[in-house]
C-alpha cells in the first residue's frame, strides 16, 4: 500500500522533521521559524520548501502519502467489495500510519492540542480523508435512492469512529492495542450501516437470520444458537 | 430560540456586514482589507473589531449566536427527550439561520467555495457544532457501553446529514424547501441510530443483544460480530 516505504524516504526530509519537532518541543511551535529548523538540520531554506509547502506541513509529514494510499486503495476496489467494509478498511490505513511511529504520533498529538493553528490544519486533513471516503461511496451508491446522502453520512460516521479510537490510543500514550480499538469502533458503524442495516431486515426474510441473546449468555451457547440458525453444525 | 432578534441587532454591525460583502463580491475576499470595509461603512477600525475578531468572522456573522442558541437548547433538554431526536432538532437551528436570509447565505456559499481560508474557517465552525452535539450525547449516554463512541459517531452523522441538505438547498439558490430537505436527511440518521436501531428492537435494550446476519455470511464473521456486540474479544 505504501508509495514510499520508510526505508527509502529521503534522509533530508526525516532530518527536517526531527529538527522541527525538537524545536517545537523546546521553544514552542509559534516561536520556531523555518529558519531555525533548517539551521538545526544543517540544510538550506529551499530544501525545506522542496519537501514541505509550509511550517504546518512538517507537523503532519505523512498525511499526503496516506491520502494517496487511501485513494489508490479505494480505486483498486472491485464490484464484490462491500462498500462500507471497504471504507472501514481504507480508514484503517490512517490508523496504521499513526501506529507505525507511536512516540512521534503521541508527541504530535500533544503539540496539536496546544496550537489552534495546527488543530485547524488537522481539521482540513480530516476533511480530505472524509471526502475521499465519501467520493468512493457516492460512486458505489450511484443510482440508489439517497445514495449521495448515505455516502456522506457513512463517510462522516467512519471518520468519527476512527478518530474516537485513534484519540483513545493516543491518550494511552500509544500503549493500547490500536488495531483492536479501531476494529471495535468501526464495528459500531458497520452494525448501523453495513450489510446488517435495518433496511435489509424487512422483505429479505429468506436470507437474513436474527439472533437474540441475553448479554450475559456464555459465548459458546450463542455460537451454538447461531450455528443452528444458519443451518450448519 | 434567538437571543438577538434581527430587529434589534445593532445597525452598525449590519452595516459592516453589508459593506464587507459588497467589497468581497466586487474586488474579491483577499483583496479587501478591514480598512476598506470600515471606510465604506463609514465607521472606525475599532468599531469593526468590537463586533468581529477578524476579517473571516464578518463572513459568518451569525454562527456565534447560533452556537449559543444550540448550547442553550441542548442544556434545556429533559430526561424524556430522546437524545438522537434532540440533536437532530438542535441541528435544525443551524439550517434555520441559513434559511432566514437565503440571498445572503447563497452569496456566502459561493464566496466560501472560492476562498480556501474561508473553507478552513467554516470547517472549524462545523467542528464546534459537532462537538456541542457530541458533548450533549456523551452526557446522555454516560454509563452506557460505548457511550462516548456512539455519541461521537451520531454527532458526526447528524452534522453530515444536515450539511448534505444545506448544500443541496444552497445549490438550488435557496429555492428548494430547506426544512423538508433537512427533515429527510436527518430521518436517515434516525433510522440508523435512533429508536429504530437494531439494539432497541427487543425492547430490553440493556441486557439483550440482537444480531442480524445474512444467512450466507461466513460463521467466523457472525461470531466476530457477536463477540463485539457482547463486548468480549
TrEMBL record, chains A, B:
The lineage of its organism: Bacteria, Bacillati, Actinomycetota, Actinomycetes, Kitasatosporales. The keyword DNA-binding applies. It comes from the Bacteria. It comes from Streptomyces spinosisporus. This is TetR/AcrR family transcriptional regulator. Keywords: DNA-binding. Residues 33-52 bind DNA. Residues 10-70 form the HTH tetR-type domain. PANTHER family: HTH-TYPE TRANSCRIPTIONAL REGULATOR PKSA (PTHR30055:SF226), HTH-TYPE TRANSCRIPTIONAL REGULATOR RUTR (PTHR30055). The keyword DNA-binding applies.
